[in-house]
């Protein structure tokens, strides 16, 4: 399952202690820029979305996304703290792949299924 870019934005915002709308906002305030670039990089790496599509979801031009992805790679090579935060986000996003698809359910989905054992049993009734 490929994560949705809005989920990536939300998880990055959560990790950095900012709001999701701060990641999308046009402000160039440094505490927003680094997480924004990390979110762009994760969006590029974890989805099949093009730079243009990512740009639309971040309300930016595709060249800005290209710059953000390059800058995120540079930051991740140099800053261990940022790398740790990005890995925390990545682990949470990976865990989402295994959540039950039923809204409000927090159980783990069954292997090869999109729902948990409780909801699989409900389908068989």
Overview of the molecule:
- With 125 residues, the chain is mainly alpha-helical.
- It has a single domain, classed as Chromosomal Replication Initiator Protein Dnaa, Chain: A (Orthogonal Bundle), CATH 1.10.1750.10.
- Helix content is 66%, strand content 0%.
- The chain has seven helices and no strands.
Keywords, separated by commas or semicolons:
single chain; 125 residues; mainly alpha; Chromosomal Replication Initiator Protein Dnaa, Chain: A; 7 helices; 66% helix; 0% strand
**Oligomer status:** single chain
Helix content: 55-70%
Number of helices: 7
Quote the average pLDDT: 87
Number of domains: 1
Rg calc: 16 Å
The name of the CATH topology is Chromosomal Replication Initiator Protein Dnaa, Chain: A
Kindly name the structural category. Answer: mainly alpha
């Amino acid at each position: 399952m490929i994560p949705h870019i809005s989920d990536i934005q939300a998880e990055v915002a959560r990790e950095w202690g900012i709001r999701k709308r701060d990641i999308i906002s046009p402000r160039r305030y440094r505490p927003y820029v680094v997480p924004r670039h990390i979110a762009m990089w994760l969006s590029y790496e974890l989805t099949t979305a093009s730079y243009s599509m990512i740009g639309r979801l971040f309300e930016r031009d595709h060249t800005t996304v290209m710059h953000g992805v390059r800058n995120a790679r540079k930051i991740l090579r140099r800053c261990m703290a940022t790398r740790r935060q990005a890995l925390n986000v990545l682990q949470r996003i990976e865990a989402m792949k295994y959540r039950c698809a039923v809204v409000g359910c927090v159980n783990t989905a069954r292997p090869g299924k999109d729902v948990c054992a409780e909801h699989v049993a409900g389908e068989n009734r």
